[in-house]
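The instructor's notes for this session suggest beginning with a concrete chain rather than abstract definitions. Hand out the sequence below and ask the class to guess, before any prediction is shown, which regions might be ordered.
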Amino acid sequence: MIVSDIHQLIGNTPLLLLDQEKTWLKKFNIYAKLEYMNPFGSVKDRLAMWLLYPHIETIKTNNMTVLESSSGNTAKAIGALCSMHDIPFQTITNRLHGIETKKLLQILWIDVTEVSWYWECPDITDPDSPPAQVQKLWQDHPDKYFLTGQYTSKNNPWYHYKTTWQEIHHDLWSVEYFFAFLWTCWSSFWAWSYLKEHAGTKTIGIVSYEWQIIPWWRTEIETWETSIFQFDFYDDIAKVSIDQAVQWSIDLIRKYGVLAWPTSWWNYAATIDYCRKLEEAWHPWWNVVFIACDRFERYVSYYEKYAPWIFSDDASNQENNWEYQTITPAYITKQQLETIKEPTLLIDTRATFAYQRKHIPGSINIPLETLDDLIGQWAFLPSDKKIVLCCRWWYSSTKQCKQLIYSWYDTYILRWWLKERFA
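After discussion, reveal the predicted structure:
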């Protein structure tokens, strides 16, 4: 097959039927829609092409800059297409995670503006959120910028409706269940719309547990706070833990050769877990589909963070240590903090921009990713002080709190302080 433009390879991704001998599910055909096989490596390649390509000539003729709020796959795909056509691209984000992502965006010559915001999840109704800032910048300078608008453009979900889900329906015709992780909620909603309309498909939304903050993944609390999410769109909501996702990801990679990133792990873990619980009651030979969203390679560092035992031969690794596993993090409130008389070190684990915007007086800023790097060097913290972690949500520093307690630090997590201060 010969193509003349890379965008011609976007879409029409294959469905992989997972071997029932490996899934241990005899009554289900489990299919993975391999969206990571798009040329830029994710389902967002479709969005980039749909929102940008019809307007390429207009953008170039008027010397406009493409504008979006993204730090991940959308930015990567739009950036690649813009680079091909010598079009400048600017993205505004508060969610620039991982050294691989940062370097990739630099290679693509993307103008990245990092801003502070209280939460990681985008909420287009909050005037301070990055998507809202992008919207305002475009409204103030409509002749200078072309806004692709992944959070606001009606073309985003509509094109999913017309292509992605039609491909699934065309390949299988009958799809009884569709599993979708919830982030912007656009694609899962339109999957629900098309597949429900044409195949009677039930859609299961997937979230993480509230105490686990993972980049590009919504907790059950955060999902309710996105303006796009509506519970009635889904037939059920499934929860998956990071431990489940990591374990099933190893299966997905090693048993099926699907080199996809953690959103695919969650989809796969929830699909298998949900189907196993209900297998006895379900009709045999039902078709179930989940999305393998984007490529794995640029997220290897997350394995080092969430599954360090994979890279270690040390059987006593603390992640597998019984004593470590039984540690329960200690939580305190703002009122309790004010009553502590002993010397106390407050560590704000949010991103630097968020810390600079507002923080508790006297606290120091060590973002979670930096704290993870330092946490093995125990001497960097004073042993004669209580350690109090102030994080975006009270549960996002759970792992770090357990590690410090395990290493004999008197450590606590400040609960709900951010909501109280910014309410």
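Then share the key points. The two ends are 57 Å apart (CA to CA). The chain has a mean pLDDT of 80.
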